[in-house]
Write a structure and sequence with these properties.
The chain has 135 residues and is of the alpha+beta class. The protein has one domain: Alpha-Beta Plaits, CATH 3.30.70. It is 18% helix and 32% strand. It contains four helices and seven strands. It has a five-stranded antiparallel β-sheet with strand order 4-5-3-7-6. It is globular, with a radius of gyration of 17 Å. The termini are far apart.
Length: 135
């Protein structure tokens, strides 16, 4: 069980990512790489015809690499929001909108929001710590 927990690295507790690694003096001094991490995104305004695993996976690629659908999204219990776990490149700007042309050639805009993001330093602009603890 211990090996499984450490090998997975990223865990989600109450939908907030938790980074798990084996402790050593070196790892204590070197924070984990947060350049790419799994983040939940909420897509609002998804047309009903696009509310499928395949279509949501395709849409989510605009924000990052698809990991999985949230259970409520899989079960279609909340059709107003699609929640998707994607691995986001934290060095790139976060996607705020996804647009595409529907089958009639009409431009459709989908809002992207992030229910939780790691802290971002106001001093060095790195993710994972606040300015008060920047070294």
């Amino acid at each position: 069980m211990r090996t499984r927990v450490i090998n997975r690295t990223y865990w989600h507790i109450a939908e907030v990512p938790l980074v798990v690694n084996e402790w050593s003096p070196e790892t204590a001094l070197n924070p984990p790489d947060l350049s790419a991490m799994p983040i939940w995104i909420d897509l609002k305004g998804v047309p009903s015809m696009m509310f499928s695993h395949k279509a949501l996976k395709c849409l989510s690629r605009a924000a990052g690499n698809f990991v999985k659908l949230h259970p409520n999204t899989e079960k279609c219990t909340h059709l107003d929001v699609a929640r998707i776990l994607v691995e986001v490149n934290m060095h790139k700007p976060l996607v705020e909108k996804i647009s595409f042309l529907d089958k009639d050639g009409v431009n459709v805009m989908i809002d992207v929001s992030y229910p939780w993001l790691p802290p971002k330093c106001s001093v060095c602009s790195a993710w994972g710590h606040k300015g008060t603890s920047c070294t």
